[in-house]
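Please, why this fold?
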Amino acid sequence: MHKRTLLLAAVAAAAGALPPAGAQAPAAAVHDPAVQLLLEYESRSTGADGVERQSRHADRMYRAGSRVWVERVLPQAVRDERVHGHRPQAGPHAGHAHDAARGAPLLVARDGSGGVTVRLVLRGERKLIDVDRAHHGNVGYGGSWEATYWLIDPRALEQMERIGAQTRGVQRYRATNGERTTEVDWDVKGRYVRRLETRDPHGLSTQRMTAKAQPLPSAMPWESVADYAQGDYSDLLD
């Protein structure tokens, strides 16, 4: 499961059940500040055998109006490998999207009636691939526009404990579910999560996401793909 989905599931569990998706959900938020964020994910766990396991990755996120673009930040070695034409092979698994879709940027948009479209961006083929609901999880979309746009469903904050006063524009929230503690640092002005962390009381398992604001580009990335051809996710399945 995608690490953001795991973190958000922990938030939902800690905050209690949220209303069904779309029920009294925030509006399309076209007036929220445009942002470019570097999202850094880290997961660490120590098993009963004493073996510590860690994983890290980063995404770049762009948000403006009712659109969000999320793209994996690849290490230099991986970028160099791709320049030389070496790509990982997915293997012969029926129903899996082919290699071109692996790690492709994701463009999510919401219309005025609340409908959400999810598209993969295949730069090499100059295509925008519509992803139907059944395959949203396969491309890293957890199904919540709110969690995609704000990095958390803001309704969850209403059910968490507010910790102290705002500090440098950030309000901290905390909730506990069983032995798991979840903390959220919310950027009040920018309206996004600066830090989302869930951990156990013994320090054996921690998942963390941090968001760092970056300068806005002169043009948002979706502007460069406006003339791409349209395609369907079923075309990518083996």
